[in-house]
Write a structure and sequence with these properties.
Shape of chain A: globular
CATH architecture of the largest domain in chain A: 3-Layer(aba) Sandwich
CATH topology of the largest domain in chain A: Aminopeptidase
Largest sheet of chain A: 6 strands, mixed
Radius of gyration of chain A: 23 Å
Number of strands of chain A: 18
Number of domains of chain A: 2
Largest interface: A-B, 102 and 102 residues
Strand order of the largest sheet of chain A: 1-2-6-3-7-17
Oligomer: homodimer
Distance between the termini of chain A: 14 Å
CATH superfamily of the largest domain in chain A: Zn peptidases
CATH class of the largest domain in chain A: Alpha Beta
Number of helices of chain A: 15
Chain lengths: 455, 455
């Protein structure tokens, strides 16, 4: 039986996952390239051990893709399982209680970079497939697995690979576990994601750093000019002021908004325990879940320029740079938003400053129809395993691959994530609740059985 | 004769100066502490060799002061020679044509960090004193020399030493060579300086870096909040918007403004060759020389926060920091301006952000009476050596010690600098014109002779 197989292999499943987290596969940092390759090889080996066939490590111009399949269920639907083995950088290191790449179990959680996003969640797929094969000798559906190593850096290689391999990847539905439960214990399917455009803005003032005594008052300052430019992007509340930015925004259906209002959302708790600032910001006429799920954002991720070392250096900086992004909601076209932003930068750059925009990557927002049979099977499996009705939510995050699957393969995606809202993705002390790792393995296995027509 | 002594010792004077520039006495960087101490020892040795007496290396809580004197001219005035042996950091290193601490002669200039600011200029004093002693067997006035190693980090130790040693340092006038000729070949005395308040502003948003997908739209962003705060400090032209900031600003006399209008200032040349930005900024109703000499400024020297590495990291940053300053003009009180700024920060910090101000150092602006006998002697010496009438200008830079000499010793300062406007102080490829080094030695020697009553 499935549940007893999972129970009796728990220690090994965990031990394998910890091995994977120990590999610092930080995709954005060139010095971690060997680790990224090592993580890919480890994932490929585990897929083979789980009974998948045709295991391939596919070279790309940056980090490899891992592919595998099992296609011996004629007449049954095909599920394309997706995940990523790369992780975000771990800095600032001094804020981690235990080292990011020495995963540690504390209070029932796995602590480590990638514990939840996405090594732990991706590995639930691998162990669900292993468990089904071990218990039944076969899988209840046809399965293709595609795992990437560039999700945290924009996923350029998989974005090229999917449209170029439509036949190989053809499936009825995709399964992605890179989202969170709405609350611990509440079975949750995510049916909407925001898109993302990531950009750099570089500002130039004087041709070299100048002495602020000799030139201050007459020479433009690149850092101040960039601050002035960026500050104009939003009003004091957080409403984006770039003209046209809200033009194509699709409002959620009234029923969807109504269901969000029934979710156990506690604004005071969200502020105190998750955000930790004196108050929240954002569009005052929108409830918090709208702000983070169905409204576009403009965010500055980092800024640098001039002298920031110890002591006092009195320069007028020649150059400054900011990393910024837009989160997009369904119907917003990334190309159009980029053009709006470039036009706005050109018109709003302060006198004496030249500003340049560089687009790093981008993808649209997405919504999935909750009536699709795979979504129905997933909701039923979740309810069966967790004992509560499944809720349908959105996520404000971006999983660009979901858009690529829709566009190039014409398939929807089941977003069945077992993370928790306080898992600290991208932050120090990222964690994944150990019980949810096992619940996820069981739920995914039961979803595949139900979707394959079993009871 | 003075001029032939200087001529026949040129090579040695230069060689000694280059030795001093080779010592990377960067006062703000703790790793250069041994170099700072080495520079102090070298200066002390050279003062002794020049015939000064009572040479002392005075320990402080940070970098040593160097003192020496020669007090054998009874009935003659006493001149307090001041300079600094510390330098600004050299970064960004890749923009230097030759390494900052391997001084090189090219096209008649000495290139190196500190070549002009202030090692080269300070060393003119030492060699002028040596030359007078060598030629005349004595000095024409009493001389005290006080050289510090913290000018580039706020000069805290000398600011304590001067009021605590008023008797020891008593003099009739101070001599400082840390300013520039208005134009090459134009003898120039600086009779006004701006003051400086250097501060850090630290902004806090969420209690940790947050995932911009999951929290974007509701969580405040420390980098964006700091940019919004700073942007409000000035309007698009560059007028400071902090209430009360212009209240105590003293307008220059009409005659002084009229003399500035006669200076060979070429705005197009200043823009193209010195600043190098698309256009200048600043108060539109003020001429450029007013903007940089007699108007207060608010400047952002550096900013940092969030992720600025390679690639894309999607965080809402928890913290951001900016280094800022005010340049002050005569009659503005530093304490009052700090209070105005702190009040403005408290009132203008965006919702959800906490901002904190830390004062690193501060000192007032200063003007000197051009009718003082020492100023008159200096102007005459300049005209004699350079063959043109001396012009009186101000500098927008800050030499806090001039204010301390006025406050605690009750003496004015002759600011006789031989730098040039394009010497790139604080920037890569700092230089000092070699001919001006020798002209400076001769001019200072002749000033001391004239001030001592000689012809």
């Amino acid at each position: 039986m499935l549940s007893s197989y999972i129970e009796s292999n728990k220690e090994r499943f965990l031990s394998e996952l910890l091995d994977l987290i120990r590999v610092p596969s930080v995709s954005t940092l060139p010095e971690h390239k060997p680790d990224v390759d090592r993580a890919a090889a480890m994932v490929a080996r585990r897929l083979g051990e789980a009974g998948l066939e045709n295991v391939e490590i596919i070279s790309t111009s940056r980090h490899p893709l891992v592919y595998a399949d099992w296609l011996h269920a004629p007449g049954k639907p095909t599920v394309l399982c997706y995940g990523h083995y790369d992780v975000q950088p771990a800095d600032p290191l001094d804020l981690w209680t235990s080292p990011p790449f020495e995963p540690t179990i504390r209070d029932g959680n796995i602590y480590g970079r990638g514990a939840c996003d996405d090594k732990g969640q991706m590995y639930m797929h691998v162990k669900a497939l292993e468990s089904l094969r071990a218990v039944n000798g076969r899988l209840p559906v046809n399965v293709k697995v595609l795992i990437e190593g560039e999700e945290e850096v924009g996923g350029e290689s998989i974005a090229k690979y999917v449209p170029a391999n439509q036949d190989k990847l053809q499936a009825d539905v995709a399964l992605v576990s890179d989202t969170a439960l709405y609350a611990d214990g509440l079975p949750t399917l995510c049916v909407g994601l925001r898109g993302l455009i990531y950009l750099e803005v570089v500002a130039h003032g004087p041709s070299r750093d100048l002495h602020s005594g000799l030139y201050g008052g007459a020479a433009p300052n690149a850092v101040f000019g960039l601050a002035q430019l960026l500050a104009k992007a939003k009003d004091a509340d957080g409403r984006i002021l770039i003209p046209g930015i809200y033009a194509d925004v699709e409002e959620p259906a009234a029923a969807e908004i109504a269901s969000w209002k029934r979710l156990p959302f506690d604004e005071a708790e969200f502020l105190a325990n998750e955000v930790g600032s004196p108050r929240l910001t954002g569009e005052p006429d929108r409830m918090i879940l709208e702000r983070v799920w169905s409204r576009p954002t403009f965010e500055v991720h980092g800024i640098g320029g001039g002298f920031t070392g110890a002591g006092s250096k009195t320069v007028i900086p020649a150059e400054a740079i900011a990393k910024v992004s837009f989160r997009l909601v369904p119907r917003q076209d990334p190309g159009k938003v980029i053009a709006l932003f470039e036009d706005w930068v050109a018109k709003n750059t302060p006198p004496g400053i030249r500003a340049r925009v560089r687009v790093l990557n981008g993808g649209p927002g997405i919504v999935v129809n909750p009536d699709h049979p795979a979504i129905a099977a997933a909701a039923a499996a979740f309810q069966e395993v967790m004992g509560k009705p499944t809720v349908f939510i959105r996520s404000g995050g971006s999983v660009p691959i979901v858009g690529d699957f829709a566009t190039h393969l014409g398939i929807p995606t089941v977003m069945m994530g077992l993370g928790l809202p306080d898992d600290r993705l991208h932050s120090p002390n990222e964690k994944f609740k150990l019980a949810n790792f096992y619940t996820g393995i069981m739920t995914i296995a039961r979803f595949l059985e139900r979707y394959g027509g079993g009871s």
